Amino acid sequence: MSLQFTLAPEPEHEAREKGRLLFAGPVTFVKGVVAMSGLPPADRIEVCFAGRSNVGKSSLINALTGRKTLARASNTPGRTQEINYFALGDGRAQPEKYLVDLPGYGYAEAPVAIVAKWQALLKQYLSGRQTLRRAFVLVDTRHGVKSVDDEIMQLLDRSAVAFQVVLTKADKVSMAERLATIEQVKGALAKHPAAYPELVVTSSEKGDGIETLRAIVAGLE
């Protein structure tokens, strides 16, 4: 029986507050990783954010954390070549977590050898990180799921990593276009067993969906 994909509901007050407190606490850059041997100790739950180049990943991470330059956006697709680790929280109110910013994929301008290296690191990370609780796959509301997104979703299926789609830049399209994209994404996700059945629609500029996403991250154990 196939899953029924829906939009994530507005969080209840307690979940909203838990999310607010997690992201209102310390958020610190830990390190940029270029090989599996460089990963920090797997001593806490982590979530990762993946998406095509220029999908708005840096803007979303900055909106989540309330920090304008925590994740640095680049005008050059494929420039971010590292797995970037950020530590969330101070461990007092709730356990600390890692927020992991993965290299953008679907880049056309990077050298082939570098692309191959990134792809290999991405596959190793997704397949071998025991503390990874959920991957958030970002999809541009203007474009919907593309073939490169589907490739990452297949990798997550094979790695048995639960992933949840986050639609970005929802403010850039009309409501009719947004609804059409949501239906397209639902159809694309139907064939992916690792897909979480709730979509999050966001706008980093308007703040839409940010509290919902914070609550989801904070609620993962």
Describe this structure in words.
The protein contains six helices and eight strands, in the order βαββαββαβαβαβα. With 221 residues, it is an alpha/beta fold. Helix 4 (147-159) links the parallel strand 6 and strand 7 (163-168). It is 34% helix and 20% strand. Helix 1 (13-24) packs across helix 6 (210-219) and helix 3 (112-128) runs parallel beside helix 4. The chain has one domain: 3-Layer(aba) Sandwich (Rossmann fold). The two termini are 27 Å apart. Mean pLDDT is 89; it is low at 74-79. The protein has an eight-stranded mixed β-sheet, with helices on both faces. It is globular. This is Probable GTP-binding protein EngB. Belongs to the TRAFAC class TrmE-Era-EngA-EngB-Septin-like GTPase superfamily. EngB GTPase family. GO terms for molecular function: GTP binding; metal ion binding. Keywords: Cell cycle, Cell division, GTP-binding, Magnesium, Metal-binding, Nucleotide-binding, Septation. InterPro entries: G_ENGB_dom, GTP-bd, GTP-bd_ribosome_bio_YsxC, P-loop_NTPase.
